[in-house]
Amino acid sequence: MKNLIRGMVVCAVLACAFSLSAQTANPNAPTATAGAASTADAATPTADEIVEKYLAAIGGKEVIGKVKSISMESSAQIMGTEAPGTMVIVDGVGYRSDTDFNGTKIVSCYTDKGGWSINPMAGAADPTPMPDDQYKMGKEQIYVEGLYNYAAKGNKIELAGKDDKTYKIKLTTKDNAESVYTIDAATFLVKSVNMKGKMQGQDVDITTSPSDYRKTDVGYLLPYAIDLDFGGQFQLSIAVKKVELNKTIDPAVFEMPKPAAASEPAKPAASTPQ
């Protein structure tokens, strides 16, 4: 059970602050119509209008377009132990998160061409390429803002529901990975993001709830607290300690390192001439 909990925690921490890689692709998902509005209520804003207001609330398109990289330091409390982590994003190029849990380093990396990871807790102490399906489900993390220029990325949105206090926007990627954003009808900030994941072979709803939004020095609003819930079975909170925008990041950090050289077998001792 302890190893199972650790594995769940690893999934959560590697997801880091803004998105989760545990999305489940749905090949039978219906095609969404961007900006589709409910015909039953003409006063309801369209999906595009809601997203426009969300983007304005976090700084506006002009500000978001100027954010080319994000560097972040965070911390999670895991079974009474603090697990510090870092995350870097170069918009459209790569995403990488590093987590230290009791001296064990866990790495998850996505680029525009593929992904790789290091996870000794799962028996992968050496850098390991990601399976294609896992890569497709998580590669959206290479972008600074998922709903910004969504159509240019080949993605679609639709209004999936509403009530007096919130709107629900479903984002479907070109690989049919789905996530539902719950957006506050008053502030137009994201209250939660819901997606499907797997736990012990069973489908589970994974909910990320950002809060404590703070404005960065360039005017881009980011959450400094993130709660994660795995179907009510497990919860985790992540605190963002430090954020730097537009810091120069060497693209080499996204390259998969070579595995540690295997030890050479001992050579047999030379025989002594008789």
Architecture overview:
- With 274 residues, the protein is mostly beta strands.
- The protein has one domain (2-254): Lipoprotein localisation LolA/LolB/LppX (outer membrane lipoprotein receptor (LolB), chain A, Clam), CATH 2.50.20.
- The protein has helices at 2-15, 47-57, 61-66, 132-138, and strands at 69-78, 81-90, 94-101, 104-111, 115-119, 124-129, 156-162, 166-172, 178-184, 190-199, 202-215, 221-230, 234-245.
- It is globular.
- Residues 1-40 have low confidence and may be disordered.
Count of alpha and pi helical runs: 4
Strand-residue proportion:
35-45%
Mean pLDDT, all residues? 81
Query: What's the CATH architecture name?
Result: Clam
Largest sheet: 13 strands, antiparallel
| Strand segment count | 13
Structural class: mainly beta
Highest CATH level, the class:
Mainly Beta
| Proportion of residues in helical segments | 10-25%
Oligomeric state of the chains? single chain
- Can you tell me the number of structural domains? 1
Question: Which shape, going by the Cα principal axes?
Answer: globular
The low-pLDDT segments are 1-40
N-to-C order of helices and strands: HHHEEEEEEHEEEEEEE
Query: What does the radius of gyration come to?
Result: 21 Å
CATH-defined fold name: outer membrane lipoprotein receptor (LolB), chain A
Strand order of the largest sheet: 6-5-4-3-2-1-13-12-11-10-9-8-7
Ends: how far apart?
A: 60 Å
State the main characteristics.
13-stranded antiparallel sheet, 13 strands, outer membrane lipoprotein receptor (LolB), chain A, about 15% helix, disordered N terminus, about 270 residues, single chain
